[in-house]
Structure formats: structure tokens, C-alpha cells
């Protein structure tokens, strides 16, 4: 399937190119790169690499693979063969699996389970393509990526839940994280939790997770995607495939981990207070119809939809709103993607929950600014815990599908190269999501839109 298909489906508008190199350097240097947070900012010195160390001395063994073969069984076989060749005699305890919905998700998971019967599996579906260190993978039918880990120094526990089986999404989140923790056999709280969920109730799921682990353990990940926003997304948790569920991985380790959560938009001076909202519908900003305020802020961007109603998804990717959030030391802005306008009351539907009293800001970007997040976000992940390029043994990259689709098709393959320019030859796996979860220092775990995140794992102990 070609990337142009989803563009036509969502009627994406073209974006004028601008020179980005000077902007990126200036933004990073000035500290005005909007909407990001990192955690575990370290004071430990970087541990020098020991030349001549062999594979047996490594604390973490990693194998990855991918495929664009048309048949599910052949695609899994190709990816797993690559994983096993890199792992050698090491049996992986844990694997990340991301695939597009051109494949049958249940068959994909079943094939992987047959090949890796003793491996815990976490993941879900990705919008249109997947990423690895080898590139951006788009197949005629589908594509998948698999990354497996063997380590006595990292314990992974996978848990999942079908939201339909519980009285609320909050209860499903509690059950899933409890199952993930129990699967590790560990006491105490995990260092970090990975999250893949169905789009729609991410805030409630996070509340349930926080009920068990508190609000100081980072929860990072994204909401599973499909190719055309028709609800074909799926979540993988060991033997289970959910359509409206959640998959979590609890991670226990004393090895250094770094991460970053970033949107990469520029701030504008347009701000207002939400004076009436319910769930994911904003009715009023500063006492006026929300869509009218948004249209004024953007210079008439959605004038047609004010008259007729309808989707504004493609138009608003480079003009998102953002919640203004006060952290411990600075002000953050958590981006929110406007979805549609109701012509009757000029309310504005969005992809994240909004409450009365929230302060909103208009953000602005362009495709080059968004593409360069594949450079800046991994860089911030290294900086978050004083990690060098040579320290990284593998990474997990989450990139919003909406921002991916705003990037010209011939520019998209640069994403994996930009990531690799930061983390070197370390393998990584990437997925394109319909909503993202991350941690803001001094605030806690949040759900936003049009965001990307990077997690990097190392072979170094925190205290080394």
C-alpha cells in the first residue's frame, strides 16, 4: 500500500517548505523547542566504552527484524530469522511487535508466538508503516517489525486488558498494570512502563495505572493506529489481541535508561481559557464558541467548516492547540489535535480530554520542523540521563501518525536515518500512533497528540 493512499483518505493539504537547519539549531540553543519533557536527568559521568569487549560481556543482547512480504507467515518468518541470527544462543525474554493492519493482526501474533513460545510479547498496530534502524518499511500488503531482548539485568513483565471486560477504562488500566507487575515476579515499583492502547480513553487508562504505581513512574508509549481511522487498530499482549484494550510492559532494571517526550511545535501569542468543555469537546474559549476562536487565531483556517461542519484533521496538524501546564521548573505545552467542527454550535472536537479552566495556546509548525524531531527527540533522550551514543544498546521510537502524514512522502525515509545519526548503530523499533503518552516532570503522566517519544536502553548500571 502506498503512503499516498492515506493522504487521499484524510485529504491532507500541502505544506510550504522552509529552511529548517538554522531554526532547529536556534531553537535547541535557546531552549524554546515547544512541548517536550525528559526525566531521570543524570549527574553520573559517562562510562567510557571498553575496546575489545566481546558479545559475551554484554549485559543486554538484542536482535531485530522486519518484513514487507505479503503473506503473514512468510513476513514473520523473515523477521524472526533475523532476530534469531543476531541473538545466537540467547533466548529472548521479551519482544516488541509492531505491524500494520494490512496483515491479519491475530495471525501475525499467532505466528510470532509459535516462533518465540517462551517470549513475552508487547505491541500493537501502526499506521501504514513501521521503522527500524534499517529504514522506513512500507509493504504492498503490510509491514511489521520485531525487536527481541535477552538480559539478566532487565526484567520485563507484560500485562493486558480488554476495556470491554471492565466497568471503566480506569479499572482496565489498573488490571493491566497489576498483571504486568505480577508477571515480573518483582517487588516494588517498576522503573518505567510501556503503554500501547486503543485510541479514545487514554486519560482514564492512565488514571488506573497511576492508582497502582503512583504518578511518579513514567508511562511512555502511544495509541495503536490503522491506515484510515476506521477502528482496525489492535493491541498485542502475550497471547491476546485486543481491539479496544491496553497492553503494558513493566520494566525493572538498574541499567541506565534515557527518554524524551516532545512535540516540537513553536508557540504563538494566542492564548485563552476553556470556559466550557466536556470530555473531548471544547464548547467555549473565553466565553465564545471554541471553533470561532480557533478560526480567528489561525487567520481563517477553518472558515469553510464553520459554515458546513466536518473534519479539520488534516488542516490542523501544523496548527494544533496545546494545554499550558506548569511543571516544577518551567511551563510546558501539551499539544492537542483538533478533529472536527460542529456547524450548529461551533464547538471543536479534539483527540484529548479538556476541562473547564484549562489554558490553551495555539501552536504552529511545518513539515521540516516535525521531521527534525527524529533528530532532536533522540538527542534529548541521551541528554536526560547523561548517555553517550556508544552507550545505547537499543531504542523504542514512537511517532504520531498525524505528523508523519504531514511530511512529504519522499522525505519520510529520512526519519530512521536521523534517529541513527544520534544513537549510532544501535537497533531500534518504531511505530506510528494515534495519540501518545508520556511523563512531564512535576506533573505526571499525560496523554497528548502530535507527539513523539524515544526511549534508549544502555549496558551501563546507574551507579557504575
Question: What would the keywords be for this entry?
Answer:
single chain; 464 residues; globular
Structure description:
This protein is an alpha+beta fold and 464 residues long. It contains 12 helices and 27 strands. It has a 15-stranded mixed β-sheet that branches. A 6-stranded mixed β-sheet has the order 2-7-3-4-11-12, covered by helices on one side. Strand 25 (436-440) and strand 26 form a beta hairpin. The chain is globular, with a radius of gyration of 21 Å. The termini are far apart. Mean pLDDT is 89; it is low at 4-55.
The gist of it:
With 464 residues, this protein is of the alpha+beta class.
The major pleated sheet works out as:
15 strands, mixed
Estimate the global geometry from the Cα principal axes.
globular
What is the radius of gyration?
A: 21 Å
Strand content: 35-45%
Q: pLDDT below 50 for ≥5 consecutive residues: which ranges?
A: 4-55
Task: Please specify the SSE layout and strand pairing.
Elements: H1 3-10, H2 21-30, E1 34-38, E2 61-67, H3 72-87, E3 94-99, H4 105-115, E4 120-125, E5 130-132, E6 135-137, E7 144-150, E8 154-162, H5 169-184, E9 192-197, H6 202-213, E10 219-223, E11 235-237, E12 240-242, E13 245-253, E14 255-278, E15 281-285, E16 288-289, H7 290-297, H8 303-308, E17 310-311, E18 321-326, E19 331-336, E20 338-341, E21 348-350, E22 359-364, H9 367-371, H10 373-383, E23 392-400, H11 401-404, H12 414-423, E24 428-433, E25 436-440, E26 444-448, E27 452-461
Parallel strand pairs: 3-4, 9-10, 23-24
Antiparallel strand pairs: 1-14, 2-7, 3-7, 4-11, 5-6, 5-24, 8-13, 9-13, 10-25, 11-12, 14-15, 14-22, 14-27, 15-16, 15-21, 17-20, 18-19, 18-22, 20-21, 23-27, 25-26
